[in-house]
Design a protein that fits this description.
Blueprint: H1 12-23, H2 33-36, H3 38-47, E1 54-58, E2 67-73, E3 76-82, E4 88-92, E5 107-109, E6 112-114, E7 121-123, E8 128-130, E9 151-155, E10 158-162, H4 171-175, H5 178-182, E11 190-199, H6 203-210, H7 216-219, H8 221-226, H9 233-251, E12 260-262, E13 274-280, E14 308-314, E15 318-322, E16 327-336, E17 339-348, H10 360-385, H11 401-420
Antiparallel strand pairs: 1-10, 2-3, 2-5, 3-4, 6-7, 7-8, 9-10, 11-17, 12-13, 13-14, 14-15, 15-16, 16-17
Helix pairs in contact: 1-11, 3-11
Bound molecules: FE2/S2 (inorganic) cluster and fe (ii) ion.
Length: 421
């Protein structure tokens, strides 16, 4: 992480004034202040990240009671664990005694979580099982000190959490994706590979990069060869429409080409974004691989290659790009003011065997390399944005339209944060 000095004059009033100035010029990039202020970052965690639905993992990663994985957000850690009764729980990794982390290893299987400090013992459902010698306190009731929990929703095998107890409903918005997302049978899919790319940049720069394909033609040569998203709609509408005309017949999935738009300001509830559309690959390309040829067996109920890819958004920071033979999930999580985890997860059909049905290097080639290219340009972007000579320039009206949707919601959220303090 790059160290950025604290601005001693920073204040809530300054956030409010800076937000107002940006809202007056919505078609320009935002000031470096938003990427440099420690106060802004803290307000973002409190008012945006910890109030949003976030992808936390896949059910196949915690198949048995006691299986868990850690999900790190900012300076926090959440334990995603399957409890004894078979329910998936999201427990705050903070002891209720004096706050030590109760679990250190990133994943594994535990019957209980034992705090390494004074030995309090927690069950996998978060309840406190034993607190050594605490009967010395007459007012101590063991049932008062279970690990804190986040809200949880498992949808088609995808585990989402929200740290806000009053979080908006997410099942309703996600239900709009049921037809095209259901085609992949993600509930029974397999995580073939996942990797956390650590980017030295503010989380918004990383997310903003994902939300626009203006840079695709210049930064992603391999991707741009096969994906029509790198061009304006007018240029590729013929290819996309031809794919949409055949998609249901070729894939055998009703509603495969469905479009649903409910993100950011248009989401049904705060932090409960849901979006899907299907876009085309250029002729001759069947999937997102080095040569555009299949790299794994068809997923779920899909019966053929229609020359399309399903684009999904679930929550403000989680996305999927789904090809007929594999799915790629992206999640962006802030870890510090200039440090972001970009997690990429590759899914294949649940029955597919590595080395037989797919080769991991071939499967991951396109999005591993594309992500490295993104990491390169995002860190350059961060260097430039943090320059005293940076002056925000105009957005492209089409290519950067979704990015603008995000920025509009972001500024609105920060404006409320500044008012409510
Ligand atoms: S901090 Fe966990 S037992 Fe004391
Ligand atoms: Fe990119």
């Amino acid at each position: 992480m790059k160290f950025i000095a604290t601005d001693v004059d920073d204040s809530i009033e300054k956030i409010a004034a800076m937000v107002k100035a940006e809202q007056a010029r919505p078609d320009y990039a935002i000031d470096s202040y938003f990427y440099r202020s420690h106060l802004v970052y803290e307000k973002e965690l409190e008012n945006l990240v910890f109030r949003s639905w976030l992808y936390a993992g896949h059910v196949s990663e915690v198949p048995n009671p006691g299986d868990y994985l850690l999900f790190d957000i900012g300076e926090d850690s959440v334990i995603i664990v399957r409890d004894k009764a078979g329910e998936v729980q999201a427990l705050m990794n903070v002891c209720r005694h004096r706050g030590a982390r109760v679990c250190e290893a990133q994943s594994g299987n535990r019957k209980t979580f034992v705090c390494p400090y004074h030995g309090w013992v927690y069950n996998t459902d978060g309840s406190l099982k034993a607190a050594r010698e605490m009967e010395a306190r007459a007012d101590f009731d063991i049932t008062d000190y279970g690990l804190k929990k986040a809200r949880i929703l498992v949808y088609m095998g995808l585990i989402f959490i929200n740290c806000d107890p009053h979080a908006a409903d997410f099942l309703g918005p996600l239900s709009n994706l049921a037809q095209p997302l259901g085609a992949y049978d993600l509930e029974h899919a397999k995580v073939a590979h996942k990797h956390t790319y650590k980017v030295d940049a503010n989380w918004k720069l990383v997310l903003e990069n994902y939300l626009e394909c203006y840079h695709c033609a210049t930064s992603h040569r391999a991707y741009a060869r096969m994906h029509t998203l790198k061009d304006t709609d007018a240029r590729v509408s013929g290819i996309v429409q031809a794919m949409l005309d055949r998609t249901e017949q070729v894939t055998g999935v009703e509603g495969m080409g469905k479009e649903f738009y409910g993100i950011y300001m248009n989401a049904a509830g705060f932090g409960a974004c849901a979006y899907t559309s299907r876009y085309g690959l250029f002729d001759g390309y069947l999937t997102g691989s080095e040569d555009g040829q299949p790299v794994a067996p068809l997923m779920g109920n899909i019966q053929g290659y229609d020359g399309g890819a399903g684009d999904f958004q679930m929550g403000p920071l989680s996305f999927m790009l789904n090809y007929p033979d594999h799915c790629v999930l992206y999640r962006f999580i802030p870890r510090g003011l200039t440090s972001t985890d970009m997690e990429v997860v590759w899914f294949v059909n649940g029955d597919a065997k590595e080395g037989v049905d797919y080769d991991r290097d071939r499967l991951t080639w396109l999005w591993h390399n594309t992500t490295l290219e993104d990491e390169f340009i995002i860190s350059r972007n961060s260097e430039g944005v943090n320059s005293r000579f940076f002056e925000p320039g105009p957005y492209h009206p089409e290519f950067e339209a979704t990015l603008q949707e995000f920025v509009c919601w972001y500024l609105d959220t920060m404006s409320h944060a500044a008012q409510n303090r």
